[in-house]
Amino acid sequence: MIAVIQRVSESSVKVDGKTIGQIGKGLMVLLGIEDSDTQEDIDWLSKKIVNLRIFPDENEVMNRSLLDSGGDVLLISQFTLHASTKKGNRPSYIRAAKPDFAIPMYEKFILAIEAELGKKIETGEFGADMKVSLVNDGPVTIIIDSKNKM
């Protein structure tokens, strides 16, 4: 699993012109799933995301986590995170999981983040043409690949 995590002051996602997910302060997370992902990847990555110390403390030092700051999460599935650009100019998405595997993994990831955070999160719509808006706070953007734990 690959996650692109952005600290935001606000973020939203629209499908067919209708807002389906929206948050204020928190994290907007793009999530890419591949066939080799397991429950272990879900557990590790969800813990890592909610505990990342990327929110400012009283001294403006990035020393607080999402849990500490009380922020929210907007989670968006994005298969293009697994794009391979090694050959030619047209990306290959062969590593990206097909929907029959990716959808249940995405749903499990939602539940894992909610359990870690102790509250519901906002999401996009898997497979939809989504319009994502955000105000990156900082800017702070972190990329984590669960296959690179060590």
From TrEMBL:
<dbReference type="GO" id="GO:0106026">
    <property type="term" value="F:Gly-tRNA(Ala) deacylase activity"/>
</dbReference>
<comment type="function">
    <text>An aminoacyl-tRNA editing enzyme that deacylates mischarged D-aminoacyl-tRNAs. Also deacylates mischarged glycyl-tRNA(Ala), protecting cells against glycine mischarging by AlaRS. Acts via tRNA-based rather than protein-based catalysis; rejects L-amino acids rather than detecting D-amino acids in the active site. By recycling D-aminoacyl-tRNA to D-amino acids and free tRNA molecules, this enzyme counteracts the toxicity associated with the formation of D-aminoacyl-tRNA entities in vivo and helps enforce protein L-homochirality.</text>
</comment>
<feature type="short sequence motif" description="Gly-cisPro motif, important for rejection of L-amino acids">
    <location>
        <begin position="138"/>
        <end position="139"/>
    </location>
</feature>
<dbReference type="GO" id="GO:0051500">
    <property type="term" value="F:D-tyrosyl-tRNA(Tyr) deacylase activity"/>
</dbReference>
<comment type="subunit">
    <text>Homodimer.</text>
</comment>
<keyword id="KW-0963">Cytoplasm</keyword>
<dbReference type="GO" id="GO:0005737">
    <property type="term" value="C:cytoplasm"/>
</dbReference>
<keyword id="KW-0820">tRNA-binding</keyword>
<dbReference type="GO" id="GO:0019478">
    <property type="term" value="P:D-amino acid catabolic process"/>
</dbReference>
<protein>
    <recommendedName>
        <fullName>D-aminoacyl-tRNA deacylase</fullName>
        <ecNumber>3.1.1.96</ecNumber>
        <ecNumber>3.1.1.-</ecNumber>
    </recommendedName>
</protein>
<comment type="similarity">
    <text>Belongs to the DTD family.</text>
</comment>
<keyword id="KW-0694">RNA-binding</keyword>
<keyword id="KW-0378">Hydrolase</keyword>
<dbReference type="Pfam" id="PF02580">
    <property type="entry name" value="Tyr_Deacylase"/>
</dbReference>
<dbReference type="InterPro" id="IPR003732">
    <property type="entry name" value="Daa-tRNA_deacyls_DTD"/>
</dbReference>
<dbReference type="GO" id="GO:0043908">
    <property type="term" value="F:Ser(Gly)-tRNA(Ala) hydrolase activity"/>
</dbReference>
<dbReference type="GO" id="GO:0000049">
    <property type="term" value="F:tRNA binding"/>
</dbReference>
